[in-house]
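Record 1 of the preview.
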Amino acid sequence: MRTGVLAAALGAVLSGCSGITSSPGPAASATADSPASATADSPASATADPAAYSEDLFARTNDERAGLDLEQLEPSECAQQAATQRAAALVGGSELVHAPMQSLLEECGVDRAAENLVRSDATAEEVVAAWMDSPGHRNNIVDPDMTALGIGCVPDGAELLCSQIYLRLGG
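->
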């Protein structure tokens, strides 16, 4: 039953990814969904610890990169603050919509950023698996030019809403 619910939630709730650069270029887009909880076996919910869930998403994202012999993403305080603000701004909305990242590029002193969004009660393992099955989200996770990541998760009803912001530092 949970698998069917997860598949339906993924199709209905997940938002596309967006790769933003300081110069015009193609933006990645896709659909996928589902965040989760602090442990791989427990689902995310408004009662879950958003910080622990964020850490789990971060570790699982780097696990995917490691499996492809890609450099690990470093934590970015600037990206984490922006991700938390982005997630909070989307709480209660019917759709997950990416905001322009031009100000983030300037704030964090980078020339490239991308975002993955999710609202769900799935586990972090399920969320990252769904992102890896979604071309736009996967592109952000496995982009070898991205070097830093910040994740912010906030309660949204009975679910968690999370934003992953990827940055290219020193590029």
